[in-house]
Amino acid sequence: MIIIKTADELKLLRKKFIEAKKDVGFVPTMGALHSGHKSLFQKSLVENDVTIVSIFVNSTQFNDRSDYANYPINIEKDVEILEQSGVDVLFLPNYEVIYPDNYNYRINEYLFSKTLCGRTREGHFEGVLTVVMKLLNIVNPKRAYFGEKDYQQYLLIKNMCQSFFLDVDIIKCPTVREVDGLAMSSRNLLLTKQERETAPHFYKILSQPYTIKKTEEELVNFGFIIDYIEDLHNRRFGAVYLGKVRLIDNVKL
Asked: Which CATH architecture has domain 186-252?
């Protein structure tokens, strides 16, 4: 696996792929890789000649500084997972590579991004859309892969690419879950043992054909603090806090 740390190096390599007429698949991540990420790599490996994965913990999308400071990082383990998965290229930039403008230029969306997670996480999707736009411009992939767990993010990125006429297919991939139903997430590592035992009830309750009010009542009974439960786009979206950890999920109605 090739490891590249600058945009110029990656652009040169990408030019070679274009000349060789190789389709490139891209999976942007913030590291702390798990089986959910692996499912994205595997789909890209099947559908493309070359798979590029980026690891960049994007500080601009964290509205909570402590959340950013506590985000789990283990590059050595991540590299091992990527190599075992057969990924061709790891793009491992730092802040200065991604933000040579020091985040003076930004992408914003003024409707859907202000709902659901965007209602209480000011600036979150501005950071997400900006970094994804930058990464897509650097990597220039044929296809880019995103998980359904972050469904609002997926829709915003897909619509951004359409709005700015980017020639990339945004592919959504099913949420990968633990055996007990908890959606896989890097933040699960931050749960205490007791919280980890409680966490699967989030998905179980969200999946029931309850009213929103009944769903909220059941979650509160298990000790969750509710950010929101909403029905939108034929899905039920939920965000809750368990201790200091924020969990999100969504299910088809």
From this structure: 2-Layer Sandwich (3.30)
